[in-house]
Amino acid sequence: MLRRFTPVLLTLIVVALGVTALAARPESSSPRRTADFVVLAGVAGLRWSDVDPQSTPTLWRMAQQGSIGSLSTRSAHRPTCPVDGWLTLGAGSYAGWNGSRQPGGCPPAAVTVEQPDGIGANLPNQESVVAYNADRQPWGAVPGSLSESVRCSVAVGPGAAVAAARPFGRVDRYAPGLPADPAGLLGSCVLSIVDLGTVSGTDPADRRADARRADEALAKVLAARPQRSLVLVAGVSDTETPARLHVVVADGPGWENGWLTSASTGREGYLQLVDLAPTALVALGRPMPERLFLGRPAVKVDGRPDDLAAAISAPADADREAAAQRAVAGWFFALLAAAQVVLAVAVLPLLRRARRLAGPHSPPPVSRRIVATVELLLIAVALAVPAALLADAVPWWRGDHAGGYFALVTVALIVGGTALVRFAPGHDRTLGPLGAVAGLATLVVGADVLSGARLQLNGVVGYSALEGGRFSGLGTVGLGVFLAGSLLSAGWLAQRVRRQWRPMVVVAVGGSAVVVIGSPYLGADSIGAIALTAGVAVAAAISTGGWLTVSRLVWATMAGLALTIGFAVVDLRRPVEERGALGRFLTALGEGTGGLTVHRSSTANFQTLVNSPLTVLAVVGLLLVWFALLQPWGGLMRLFGIYPAIRAALAGTALAAVIAGLLGGAALDVAGAAAALVVPMAALASLRVLDHSTDRTLPGTGHPGPDGPPGAAPTGGTPDGGRPDDGGEAAAREGDGKDLPTAAVTPPDGAGADGPRDGAADAPDDTSGTRPVGRDAATVPTARTPGAVGPARTSAAVGRSAAGAG
């Protein structure tokens, strides 16, 4: 009875862990009204490296007494040109100008601003810009939403006019430049937007001159600011490629001496450009527009150093790291994909010649030195992504040759990790390298997540703040590696315990990984947690043996759905501004705007599928598994038969990685990151299983050798004396098989060199001990057993493959 309800109980445990992890939310201070007036001052291209006491004394003093952060200026276009940045500022969502542009360039034409009455202004192109964002962009941005949320707004300069124009093109108050005394203008409306100029170019002297002019204009604004006002200074856009992080400073009541952050980033010291519009409305105590902004209000958090130079060094260093990361990440993944392809080609002949066949026509075995070298290379490739993540603990981006330093650090870590696996206890066992590599990968990614995911932010295999997609928690690559590592570790541990305990081990390890991934305090990835829940349910269901039947697939589906429904119910009970991605999607679905989210996800999936090098990793891994490892000569089917828990872990990894990628808009990126770890280890384990596929154990002794007792009955034992149905099974299979002689055996009738054709994957878990065990059953000629009495050929079960089970 208990066995019948085991799948139900395990499903409930996984779902309960997942809902608990996803439902918890970090405490955050709710934004409140802090000002009667808000002044948004923008400087296109302004970076923290442009700020110093000599060139920008006004901004320096403002930053000393206010709160600071790094600003990601993502918009609907890349790069974010000045006109795109101003438009996104006024929309509160990712918006883009509809002017013609070359790839990687900005529109050449200036914005047309008409002043028919001398008070306000009109933008004649505004209606076409609104239509362009509604029809051609997937973000649902409405330019002018910020101005529509207040009764009156002021714009100074052409860039500010773009941000302050209402959807029909009207700017309430407009001045082409700052007057000598702007106090009256800034005090005429509760919201003022000021264009302070542009900082552009690569020459330091030119940038200092531009920053000095912008600082002089800021001094006039601060001198004329209204009482009880909040002033926000932001570098609203890029001015050239590649994209960079920019300045954001908040100065006003309640914003003293802190870091800026928001719910959209979840990371201290980081804001997005789309956060500035809701920040202004919350500071004024105004309601949000009916169609919610994509951004979230900024808040101040304590912990900033009192020394401004030390405080500024952090965002300036983050900008350098993000810029270096973009340049290095491309060639790193390209080299990794190339290495995977080369190793896949190199492994094919080894797989073909790994099985030692009887008779004079058997191909000569491959040199042990060559096999050992290929095994070390497979381990090194599998550890490449964890090593690249760990490399960000060293500030390689600060040198003049950042790419070279990163390569040196990563190679050193790969060599160290490979040596650690090679000399670890149990390396000679079949699953030794697999368990060690999976454990190392899980440990590296898990430790980073538990410590705040600092290595993933702007890391080569992490996520970039320049992209604006994620600022905290697990990134796409980290998710793939952690999914694969945790499930492989669960399968490796489950294989070492009794058969009936394997599902519990898988649930314990997998459930812990679900909590790490889904908790907003840690991984902050609800979609990844839901995907892993389905993978854990599948792995637990088939870890004891057997195939993925319809009933087991139903339980896995029910687990994922139950977790999704549970989290959705909890998320929808939160206030609108605190809901997660799932709650916001369901809210949009109820309002009839859920199609935008679906469109964004499908667009992101397609773009990622076409442009990402991780797609190559996923495809190469799939081809190697399908056309080589799963073939009769590939060894993976034999591995699955001997180690059902490993088969369960691989099946769960494949399911979880595909679900996480498709639902998260990452296409095959999660699967590619998982394949970078899983496929080399599967190939290595398959090589070892095939290498020992003809090793035999004589009946009755439990030990290999030609001198077994005559007529001894089979015991079903293992070379190490363990029982096939418990931990001894694993211990037996972990022998290296180096001392086992290869006996000339004759397969039973109906079985070829590869054993029975019925694909009984779980034959090794048969515990009867009185019948042939799967494909390892064989007949031993009488000539090999001196003193035997009986017919010329005596059929007996000879136990499992000793080293093939290692």
Can you give me a brief rundown of this structure?
By secondary structure, this protein is an alpha/beta fold. It has helices at 2-23, 57-65, 82-91, 126-135, 145-148, 158-164, 183-186, 204-224, 276-284, 308-354, 368-382, 384-391, 402-422, 432-450, 476-494, 502-518, 526-542, 550-572, 581-590, 594-611, 614-629, 636-642, 644-663, 669-691, 727-733, and strands at 37-44, 67-72, 121-122, 153-156, 170-171, 173-175, 191-198, 229-234, 246-251, 258-262, 270-272, 298-301, 778-781, 793-796. Helices cover 48% and strands 8% of the residues.
> Per DSSP, what share of the residues sits in E-state strands of 2 or more residues?
5-15%
The average pLDDT score comes to 79
Low-confidence stretches: 697-806
Helix content: 40-55%
| Rg (C-alpha, Å) | 32 Å
> Which shape, going by the Cα principal axes?
elongated
Structure annotation, total helices: 25
Which class best fits the helix and strand makeup?
A: alpha/beta
Main sheet properties: 10 strands, mixed
Alpha-carbon distance between the two ends = 35 Å
Total strand count, please?
14
